[in-house]
Amino acid sequence: MKLAELAAAPKLIQITIDDADTVEAYGEPVEFWVYDRQDMDTFMKLANVGENNMGEIIKVVNSMVRTEDGECFLGEDKVLPMDLMLKVIEEVVSQLGNPQRQTLEA
Fold first, then answer.
1. Contact present, 77 and 62 (Cβ < 8 Å)
2. Does residue 1 lie within any of the structural domains?
3. pLDDT, position 70
4. Which residues contact 65 (CB under 8 A, 6 or more apart)?
5. Quick check: is 92 in a domain?
6. Mean pLDDT of all residues in the chain?
7. Is residue 56 part of a domain?
8. Domain count across the chain
9. Residue 106 predicted with pLDDT over 50
10. What pLDDT is stored for residue 43 in this prediction?
């Protein structure tokens, strides 16, 4: 396989947090979008943040979380409740660690 065949523009993928605690707390599942591929700078920032540096993890994840239109909406003036932010971080990291998602769809 040629390397060029694996290159593709990032696509938005929907992530749904639908565990019982989230649905009970917010009344319904919570949806957000991320790009299925991240540039190396973003990936390395997240990979190199220590587990004890939650502030930096949140900054990187905030830059990755999007609306269905691809717009960033989190930042200094808009933040998520901490219980939900922890679940968002978990889901985003899970997606980054899933190379199958990036190579199965053409």
1. no
2. no
3. 95
4. 32, 33, 34, 72, 73, 74, 88, 92
5. yes
6. 87
7. yes
8. 1
9. no
10. 81
Q: Note the pTM of the prediction, 2 decimals.
A: 0.81
H helix and E strand count, the chain: 5, 2
40 pLDDT more than 50: yes
Contacts of 34 (CB under 8 A, 6+ apart): 12, 13, 15, 64, 65, 66, 92, 95
Range(s) of the domain holding residue 68: 10-99
Residue 3 lies in a domain: no
For 84-103, write each residue's pLDDT tens digit: 999 999 999 888 765 555 44
Supply the CATH number for residue 78's domain.
Answer: 3.30.2220
- Whether residue 66 contacts residue 12, with contact meaning beta carbons closer than 8 Å, is answered with yes
Compute the radius of gyration of the chain from its Cα atoms. Answer: 15
